[in-house]
Write a structure and sequence with these properties.
Largest sheet: 8 strands, mixed
Protein name: Alpha/beta hydrolase fold-3 domain-containing protein
Radius of gyration: 23 Å
Distance between the termini: 31 Å
Number of helices: 14
Number of strands: 8
Structural class: alpha/beta
CATH superfamily of the largest domain: Alpha/Beta hydrolase fold, catalytic domain
Shape: globular
Helix content: 40-55%
Organism: Protea cynaroides
Strand content: 5-15%
Number of domains: 2
GO molecular function: hydrolase activity
Strand order of the largest sheet: 1-2-4-3-5-6-7-8
CATH class of the largest domain: Alpha Beta
CATH architecture of the largest domain: 3-Layer(aba) Sandwich
Length: 469
Amino acid sequence: MPSVTVKLYSVFFKLLLKHRLQNRIQSSSDDDSPFGVTTRPEESVAAANPSFTDGVATKDIHIDPFTSLSVRIFLPETCFASSDSGSQTQSRAKVRSSDPDSSYSSINTQYNLHRRNSYGPSASPKSAANLAEQIRRCSYGGGSDAESLISKLETGAYRGYSPSLANNQHFCRKLPIILQFHGGGFVTGSNDSSANDYFCRRIAKLCDGIVIAVGYRLAPENRYPAAFEDGWKVLHWLGKQANLAECSKSLVSKRGGSADVQRSNLHRHLVDTFGASMVEPWLAAHGDPTRCVLLGVSCGSNIADYVARKAVEAGNLLDPIKVVAQVLMYPFFIGSVPTHSEIKLANSYFYDKAMCIIAWKLFLPDEDFSLDHPAANPLIPGREPPLKYMPPTLTVVAEQDWMRDRAIAYSEELRKVNVDAPVLEYKDAVHEFATLDMLLKTPQAQVCAEDIAIWVKKHISFRGHELSY
């Protein structure tokens, strides 16, 4: 059974959630703006931080001018380390020996020492100040290409990359992209909440990948299918970013002249109507769109499953994006015919069945409300595409969660058609046990994150370097 602390916290959590849902019901008739909201005023949020203070840098991007849709990017500091340390060392030695500017050589050496000892003693104040000054001059152009990449410091933020070296594996690594959808019953929660920020940082470090947390529009301001469409729109945005990155490399390689001329030509072509850069530098330098994983938490699992289905239907039209796997953490599934766990654990911890039905009423349009709606029940007949085309799917369930049985049943249906679909069940765990702020630092939450990382790495490994178990 859960601890006494969890039980007491659950009581206060449910009282607070019930109060919030009732407020949403009372104000739902006045909320019809298509722009929508992605976070509530009462939500405890964590500010974005582009510095690698704890091994992960973050930034927020508003990607749709017509809605409130936004994303938070989590970039692990391992994006700078080469997977082939030997070739990396030899290549950097060649660069240093062939570069007539001794100041660059010393700066590059300091960077290497800092990268190898990111949590150790820092360089001298004078050398750190000189390096910081070099970074300020070259982060957005005007310095050498290598210097533009050397901007990971405790004293400054990682500001971007140099387009001509964005694909140079000796300076940066291409990491898989994990598209994460937060929980909250479609009504609460946010991608920048303190709990979600902590969880995404943990996943980014353990999976060694770029996590993109989606700030989809919340209900009842924006009911179904707004949140689902936002998830699909972000996947399209990733594809657009990958294509823009390829265009930028083509423009730089085809034009002659100095690096400064190349940069000016690049920025003249790849800007939007307001003159802002269209290329997201972190993704262009470090993102690998051919290794994309969908990770959904609670109601975010419903969105992830929808996006996976749409990706299967799109096929090659989504190139270069390839969804290689998805992770469904205690999915927010329900149905008109109750399962055993829905009967036995209807009044379970944190999210009981009665409050979740209220959340579904706030999310689904009144005329379409049904517990067997395609967004709510994955097992209704006639859903497209056929399950045999779905990507490998890991399902995480909690023993004390009333949604457990339907999630397990969905995983069983996937296995029947030969889809890799294991289930991880955690004893004495409750809904949101691995992603709720109070439970994030528990051993169960840590073990769950590590188990997810082990399974995900099997599907994001390069061919010929797969992990064996």
